[in-house]
Amino acid sequence: MKFALIGGGVVGSCYAKGLVEGGLILCGVWDIEPSEPLQAFTAANGVKIHGAPGAWLGDADYVLSAVFGSASFDVARQALPFMKEGAVYVDMTTATPEAMAQASELAGDSGLHFVDVAITGAVNMRGVKTPLLCAGERADMVANLFSGIGAPVKIVDGPPGNAARLKLLRSIFSKGLEALTIECLATAEVSGLRAQLHEVLLDIDQTPLQALMETLVTTHIEHAGRRRDEVMEARQLMRANGIEPLVLAAVQALFERSADALKRGGAPGGHPDAALEWLVRSASARGEARVD
Asked: What is the pTM for the complete model shown?
């Protein structure tokens, strides 16, 4: 089985080395500014580095793209015409779901397959064992490829772009939690209460994540006004400790929006589905509350 690599940076080099060690043959690399480690790796394996796509891509059963997300569609557009019919283009970039869908359509028009692979961790820390999400009609084949070198892979239902969407949804949660954690722990540190804070958060830590999220959603609407007031008090605490509450300002705006929407109409039932439907409508409305 042969594969080609587009983009020999940290991600591309990591997976190329893993696949070669797993028994696949690397038949070429496209990289306009190859690093010294990439040059050493390709030289050791008798692989040529190219400055542009070309007929050499036709030898590959899989073409892995690991370029910057902003360049992904243009790179795919240039590479796809040189691939052999039935080959699989594996996009491991941080491209938008829309760019993934467009590139997938181009691949289909050329008799090729396109798989969207989202990396949900830090490759520089975990290497080929970084968790992956795969979406596309040949996602099972690509999943087998990567699981064969030790990568935890989850196949995502639906067309290419869905793996990228799930990664971004994960980022909403993880990056939002990261930002809130920074504000919370920084304030606790200044207050001299960091150790005690961990203790009073134990009930949250011991609650399964899905149950916690559904509880927050179903109770949010009815209690939005009271919780908004508590957020305002928390912002005052942060300022009293010399910390500017950037994230909590947005949190207050969200609770304010829900409280205002509740005044205009009744609350839904206590099921997460009904609550989310109500919250989606309120989030889509114009004239959102602003907090200075």
From this structure: 0.85
